[in-house]
Amino acid sequence: MSDSHFYPIGTPGQPWGDAERAQWRARQVRQRSYADEVLQRVEGLRSRFDVEPYGEVVYADERFPLFAIRSRNWQPGLPAVLVTGGVHGYETSGVHGALRFVEEHAARFAGRVNLLVAPCVSPWSYERIQRWNFDAIDPNRSFRADSPAQESAALMRLVAPLRGQFAAHIDLHETTDTDESEYRPAVAARDGKPFEPDTIPDGFYLVDDTGNPQPEFQQALMEAVQRVTHIAPADSQNEILGSPLFAEGVIRYAMEELGLCASVSGARYTSTTEVYPDSPRATPEQCIQAQVAAVCAGLEFVLARA
User: Fold this and answer.
1) Which positions are annotated as active-site residues?
2) Which phi and psi angles does 6 have, rounded to 5°?
3) Residues 6+ away with beta carbon under 8 Å from 154
4) 141 vs 151: CA distance, rounded Å
5) Is the pLDDT confidence value at 5 over 80?
6) 298: closest CA among 265, 270, 275, 274?
7) Domain of 63?
């Protein structure tokens, strides 16, 4: 392990304790407003959708109410689709892609699909443009019983009454340059492990579920997204981030085993989107549009098979 790769908190080879977590937390700076950028837009949807509080994230003296957007006149006979964004708060297009989808596209699916959208699962992290939560925990490795992450536990409580009733769940994410420069070194330091450098794929890709692969669903999303932005190529090992490709831009993770958000719904069709906002070939607007395209394609796929 090169010293140049060691994160500036903690002692090499030793996992963090409370002091190191507090030191890490002190480095996090509020950079944007969840209330102004997310909650105001959610409030603006009340005339067309049911806006449902599903909990609150409380850290020190900060409180963040959590809201989901639900189809008005939910009809039990219709296919249901769950859309989640902002599980990692720093993944901006996931949050704004989910909101944009509801604002501009959800109406055309009214009466055909039951929608449940949680646009910003991790508000503390959204404000700090951070992957982890206040406790230096990755919410997207925490969707399991007795979750240590408030954000993950709240979403699981929201979804639990409907688990198994969803046809699809699309979880909107990004892979950024800071994954390599900040977060992977931080994970290694936190866990007392060596940092192993990797490369960031330039472009959009999808993560399917190893335990429930749905290649046709992934292909439908990919075809829609590639009209908006470019698809990440495989590396020299025909992999993306150490995982083999099963189709262009598609890898697989063990969703439930890893505690990933896409495992919470019990849906037949699941996908985690990964947009690359740092590419010179993509703008922030394209990243949002790519997320919207993936959601719309997922809904059309479900309807074609309903």
Assistant:
1) 274
2) -80, 135
3) 54, 55, 56, 57, 66, 121
4) 11
5) no
6) 270
7) 3-304
Answer whether 265's CB lies under 8 Å from 249's CB.
Answer: no
Q: How far apart are CA 222 and CA 229, in angstroms?
A: 10
pLDDT in tens, 47-88: 999 999 999 999 999 999 999 999 999 999 999 999 999 999
Number of structural domains the chain divides into: 1
Beta strands 50-59; 62-70: pairing state = antiparallel
What whole-number distance in Å separates Cα of residue 258 and Cα of residue 91? Answer: 19
* Residues forming beta bridges with residue 83, ordered by sequence position: 117, 170
| The pTM of the whole model exceeds 0.85 | yes
Asked if residue 74 lies in contact with residue 166, where contact means CB atoms within 8 angstroms, the answer is no
| CATH number where 212 lies | 3.40.630.10
Which amino acid is located at 82 in the chain? L
Edge-first strand order for the sheet with 114-118 is: 50-59, 62-70, 114-118, 80-85, 166-174, 269-275, 205-209, 250-253
Residue 295 is encoded by which pair of tokens?
A: 């959601």
